[in-house]
Amino acid sequence: MRVALVYDRVNKWGGAERVLLALHEIFPDAPLYTAVYHPETAPWAKDFQVIPSFLNKFPLDKRKHEDYPFLMPLAFESFNFDEYDIVISVTSEAAKGIITKPKTLHLCYCLTPTHYLWSHYEDYFQNRAFRFLTKPIVKYLRTWDLIAAQRPDVYLAISQNVQNRIKQYYGRDSEVIYPPVNLDQWSPTDEKPEDYFLIVSRLVSYKRVDLAIEVFNQLQWSLKIIGDGREKKRLKKIARGNIEFLGELTDGELLSYYQKSRAVIFPHEEDFGLVPLEAQASGRPVIAYRKGGALETVVEGETGLFFEPQTRAALAKALKRLEKMKFKPEAYQENLAKFSQARFKKEFKKRVEKEWTKKK
Predict the structure, then answer these.
(1) CATH 3.40.50.2000 spans which residues of the chain?
(2) Whole-prediction pTM value?
């Protein structure tokens, strides 16, 4: 059977890109279709045959995909998939909107319904003037997104959290297959942790890194922040001397910081969230906001703690509770088994084969 992969943009590295690499191992000959391709910021894609849309020829920077969201529908509708038996879209935006013939199986692995159109609209459009000016574009994109959401034959979701959103916003049923975590990449150490807490996150508003900074400013405990983003300057301005910004690091450097931390702070709602699993694989507990994907990846009292509501007082209380607790290494390993790469590849391949048999 001839298989093609489709992804929104090949211009960065993150959890979705890890999914694509796992799919490449299952379907090594499948080309990867995308709106824009930027090899310099996506070296992970060098082993793929990447086929970008007409947007790749536009003069705008391929890294700044936010510049033309209104053209994304056209980009994906312009592709022709007539020669393929199966097309797998991996998407949090427009890739699900590809057009296929009835004989072709289109399976969508949904990372989330489009954030800025649905669940996180208020976060993206906080400025009233900007919200007013973009209202016609948002209306057009919402209308198209609802139409596009009906095109896949089958939906798979990365978490129960996303499964609920797919039903809420698109009216579609889905099955959960957790994304893969490269557990071989992360490992615990016998060394005692150092006296700091850790955040690993993109520095954007909805990640609520500011909440953690405010708490650690008050407690005057050591906090290290790994990651980059448009909020970095603002966050550095409000942080005191006990808080250190480390920027982007290699996976090897990141592992060392995971291993040596007292705990990893996860202060926001995430669709799924790899950071809590990477922390546990490195032998460290997680303090997470009690909402979203963390409810499926953190085991209360065994691999970490939750806090709620999303306030400074609640997070400070959880931090102080953690000081009195001990976590067993075997609890991390038992929890992590549900998210292995081998499990993902087995489940995904089985589901694709099942749906292809039904389609034929």
Answers:
(1) 3-180+340-359, 183-338
(2) 0.85
